[in-house]
Amino acid sequence: MVQSPLSILDLVPLVPSTGAAAALRASTDLVRLAESRGFRRYWVGEHHGVPNVGASAPAVLIAHLAAVTSTIRVGAGGVMLSNHAPMVVAEQFATLEGLHPGRIDLGVGSAAGATAEIAETLRQGAPAGFAGKLADLAAFLHGSFPPGHRHAGIRVSPAAVPGPPLWMLGAGESSARLAGELGLPYAFAHHLNAAGAEGALAAYRGSFRPSARLSQPYGLVSVAAIAADTEAQAHQLARAAGLPDDLPDGMVVGDGPTVRAALAVLSDELGADEIMIVTNVFDAAARRRSYTLLAPFS
């Protein structure tokens, strides 16, 4: 078995009793650890109105995390594009790329990351129109609009900065096929839909068309995992995070060697080019320890 490169998805687990500032400091410490231990990239999500999640403004958080590191790739996993104007997202991430050249990733998804009421507030009543927004975003970042297009004369600022790599996120076959048809790298949310992973990745590879950005398919798989020094400690952390003894499908919990071996098996089974670990535990020290046990340089 060959272990795929490892990365981290951070949703900024937040404990109301300690507050958002503590959760954000924990993420700052964690990205430094990730860089020192050889993780390939560190992504943050976008969620709104979730009491125990502090990741709501990816571009702002990415700017901070990239500023306290120097080599690890930092990005969005992802921006929920239906909530935003494509040109705004393009300019935010072009600015980030200008500040941290070669280190920024932009993953986009079609979900709201919010309740229907909050999504309506974010969008101010405008229709989501994800596929059209994705096409506009790609054109703003990496290309140009055809003559006669309503945006043909518009250029993002800073115009001299090439856009960062654009990723498609998803948890089903429709997003996988869209990523393949557009020649984008694809990040599958195994931590949300473990049963759908094999079908989605097959759909992605089967529909893939080489693009100027990517010559062959590249599939990243995000996996929920908790590691500790002992299996009992790992299951205790899972219970403290509100998970029942019957763990969610596809979640890996155990001591370091057990979880590392399980991730390697999963990577082989799915043909994953990269594994992104999601460890949503509220104890910051335990979360750091989990990633330390699973790190490439452990």
Largest sheet: 8 strands, parallel, barrel
Give the end-to-end Cα distance, rounded to a whole number of Å: 18 Å
Give the rounded overall mean pLDDT.
91
**Adjacency order of strands in the biggest sheet:** 1-2-3-4-5-6-7-9
Q: Could you state the oligomeric state of the chains shown?
A: single chain
Strand content: 15-25%
Number of strands: 9
CATH homologous superfamily classification: Luciferase-like domain
CATH level-1 class = Alpha Beta
Question: What's the helix-strand series?
Answer: EHEHEHEHHEHEHEHEHEH
Level of helix content?
40-55%
Rg, Cα atoms, Å: 19 Å
- Total individual domains: 1
Total helices: the number is: 10
Low-confidence stretches: none
Pfam family, one: Bac_luciferase
Keywords: Monooxygenase, Oxidoreductase
Domain Luciferase-like: 17-240
GO cellular component, one term: cytosol
